[in-house]
Amino acid sequence: MVKVLLKNGNLIDGLSDEIKENFNVVIEGDKIIEVTKEVPKDLDKYEVHDCSGKYILPGLIDCHVHLVWDGSANPQAVINYEPDESIILDAYAHAMETLKLGITTVRDLGAPRGTVLNLRNKINANKLPGPTIICSGPPVVMTGGHVHYLGYESDGDSEVRKNTRRVLKEGADLVKVMATGGIYTEGEEPGSVQLNLDELSAAKEEALKKNKKVAAHADGIEGIMNCLEVGIDTIEHGIYADRNALEIMKNQGTFLVPTMKVMRQLTSSPDIPEWALKKAEAVVKPHFEMLKQAVEIGVKIATGTDCGGPMTPPKYYYDEILIMKDAGMNSMEVIKASTSVAADCIDRDDLGAIVNGKKADLLVIDSNPLENLEVLKGEKLIFKNGLIV
Length: 389
Ligand SMILES: [Zn+2]
Prior knowledge:
It contains 12 helices and 18 strands. By secondary structure, it is α/β, with parallel strands linked by helices. α5 packs parallel to α6, α6 packs parallel to α7 (about 245-250) and α7 packs across α9. Strands 1, 2, 3, 4, 5, 16, 17 and 18 form an 8-stranded mixed β-sheet that branches. It has helices at about 75-80, 85-100, 115-125, 155-170, 195-210, 220-230, 245-250, 260-265, 275-295, 315-325, 330-335, 340-345; strands at about 5-10, 20-30, 30-35, 45-50, 55-60, 60-65, 105-110, 130-135, 140, 150-155, 175-180, 215-220, 235, 255, 300, 360-365, 380-385, 385-389. About 55% of the residues are buried. The chain has 2 domains: about 5-60 and about 350-389, Roll (Urease, subunit C, domain 1), CATH 2.30.40; about 60-345, Metal-dependent hydrolases (TIM Barrel, Alpha-Beta Barrel), CATH 3.20.20.140. The protein binds zinc ion. Zinc ion binds next to loops.
């Protein structure tokens, strides 16, 4: 097997606070096997990519996507009457679109039946090219609750327990629960509680038995507090988290995946259903204020877009990170949130950093993203599992 050498590049390794200048990265198979100042001897034994003056960073991770949705104004309407075979093909197309942007791993937090679970099996087994997929499969949701059409409707702690066991049996990498209402389901409010404390507790207990994490859609403060009480691992959106909640998150090590861009996108088009548009307009400002406070308090923040959701195709990843910067994170913190912190959030210690033994998911770009994060949007060389995309 020919080794690949990324020669003489500036490393942003996902962990250090500083750029490491003039480093060499050696890839063998799908792994990084060496990160060194020394240029290896016998260069003819390597496929060499001269990275002089360029920047090498870990492949980016999106901690919150919906691969089955197409990012149009009302994406659920597009797949409502589609057979699963067709939904899976759509999801595959969206996965490839995501990978080509330099996003080498996604965590999918809600897809109907076995659609994304099956897609994950093929891609993660290298039978199809695509981004690494971590997925929850169908969310556990109260009857008629937030995006119930994607999930398993469950009422009372015994049904939640049953359906949590069921998704784990079906192969979910983690469990997604809906702790509050949200924007993109008609007739509910983001502030209202959905699965209650006992139900969330049952989900968490069952996930723990299988050593899996629980991610909660949680917009309103009461639902967020319920999540924190039972030890939910990642709070998705977190719109109305107050100082007290954010301090508890900081102390418990709970991740926040804020998904800022999608809320703005939900106000961006006259084609968004009226009921969603009104709710979205009300949350944009408190959501941003929440994120600013979370940054100030030092909550662990991981990048996630909710892409696939209304008016939010995968390319908005690069807008998401600019909003995170606006909220007070510095550029290096934003890159960590998108690499090593994200890897931690999705429970994959083989990803998100340029270190010996990690997966060779890497980006090579021409200019310094710490000076301008927008350069991440541009042309880049993408390695996924050691292969050029
Ligand atoms: Zn979502």
